[in-house]
Amino acid sequence: MPWILTFAVLAVVGTLLLCTLTACGDTGPKEKSPIDGARAFAHVKAMVDFGPRPAGTAALRQNRDYIVDELKKLGMTPKVDSFEDPAKAPGITFHNVECEIAGTKADEKRILILGSHYDTKKTDVPDRPSDGPDQFVGANDAASSSGLLIELAQWLVKNPLQCPTLLLWFDGEESIPWEWGSGDRALFGSKHAADKLSRRFDRKLGRNVIAMVLLDMVGAKDLHIVEDTDSSPDLIALFKATAEDLGYGKHFFKSSLPVTDDHVPFKQRGVRVIDLIQFGGNDRSGVSPWWHTHEDTLDILSPDSLSIVGHVVVRALPKIVAEAVK
Ligand SMILES: [Zn+2]
Questions:
Q1: Which helix (H) or strand (E) holds 242?
Q2: DSSP one-letter string for 163-230
Q3: 161-205: per-residue pLDDT in tens?
Q4: Distance, CA 10 to ligand 1 centroid (Å)?
Q5: What are the residues whose beta carbon lies below 5 Å from ligand 1 (ion)?
Q6: Ligand 1 centroid – CA 174 distance (Å)
Q7: How many H helices and E strands in the chain?
Q8: Which fold has domain 43-325?
Q9: Binning pLDDT at 50, 70 and 90, where does residue 240 land?
Q10: Contacts of residue 256, Cβ cutoff 8 Å, sequence gap at least 6
Q11: How far is the CA of 207 from the centre of ligand 1 (A)?
Q12: Cα 111 to middle of ligand 1, angstroms
C-alpha cells in the first residue's frame, strides 16, 4: 500500500473513530422508537374522518366510541364519565373517557395521569369575526394527541409503570365562545376530572398524583414542543434530558411561553404537571399558522412526529415514577 494511501486510510478511520467518540453534529435518534407512529397516525385519521367534533355533537360521540372500542381491543376496561354544566354550557352533555392500568407495585396507590382532550374547536360561533359552516377537523388539535394516547395505552398495557396509570381523554377543552377570554367556559373535562379525583383522594390530590402529563398538538411535521412556563420546571428538565438523550433534543423546548390547557385544573390542586404542546410557527414565535384554522388537516402531520413524542413519553414516565417511589 503506498504511504499516501495508508495515510488516507488512517485519516478516514481516525475521523470515524473521533465521530463515534464525540457524537459529531446532530446524531439523530439513538434507538428505534417503541411507539409505532404509523399506527398512531391511523387512529388520528379515523378521528379526523368523523369531521368537526365539538362537544355535544354526534361526530364527537363517534370519536368517543372509537376510543372506547380501541381500548377494549387492547383488553382494557374504559369508562365514560358524563356530566353537565348547565350554567356555563347549557344544553351540552360532556363525556370524559377514563381508563386505568394497574401498576406493578401492588402497594403503590398513588397514580400517574396521562391525558389529552379529544373535542375540537367549534368554529361557527356568533362571536367569530367571519363565521361560516364548521369545517374545522382538528387533525393536530386534538386528534394527534388523542390518537397517540391510544398507541401509548397499548405500550403501557405491555409495559405497566410501578404505579397505576390513569388515562384521560377530556371533553370540552375548547372554549365555547370563539375568544378564550378568562377560560371560564373552557376546560370543562379537566376541571370535572380534577374535582372528581380530588374527592377520590380526600382533597389531597397533590400527594396522590405523582404527575400529570398532558399531550396537545403533538403531530406536526415541523415538530417543536414549547416550554410551557406553567409546567413544573423539574418535569420540563426531565423531559428535556430524555429528549436530548434519545437524539430528539432539537424538537423540544426551544421557545417558552405560558399555556392554559387541561393541566391547569390539576396544577391548581397541587399536582406536578407538564403540557407537551406545540404552539408557535416555524420561527417558534406566535401561534402556529394552522392553529384553529381549516388548515389543521392531516397534511400538516407526520407519523414520525407522533413517534418522537411517544418515544420521549415512554422513556420519561418510568423515570418520573422511579423518582417518586424510591
Ligand atoms: Zn384548540
A1: helix 233-245
A2: S-EEEEEES--S-SSSS-TTSTTS-HHHHHHHHHHHHHTTT-HHHHEEEEEEEES--BTT--EEEETT
A3: 999 999 999 999 999 999 998 999 999 999 999 999 999 998 899
A4: 56
A5: 121, 141
A6: 6
A7: 9, 8
A8: Aminopeptidase (3.40.630)
A9: very high
A10: 226, 227, 228, 229
A11: 30
A12: 27
Expressed in angstroms and rounded, the spacing between residue 96 Cα and the centre of ligand 1 is 17
The predicted model scores a pTM of: 0.90
Tell me the CA–centroid distance for residue 216 and ligand 1, in Å: 9
Report whether 158 contacts 319 (CB < 8 A): no
Nearest Cα neighbor of 113 from 303, 275, 234 is 275
Q: What is the dihedral of CA 40, 44, 49, 54, to 10 degrees?
A: 150
Residue 153's contacts (CB-CB under 8 Å, 6 or more residues apart) are 70, 71, 74, 76, 99, 101, 167
* Sign for the pseudo-dihedral over CA of 243, 246, 249, 251: negative
* Residues paired with 82 in a beta bridge: 95
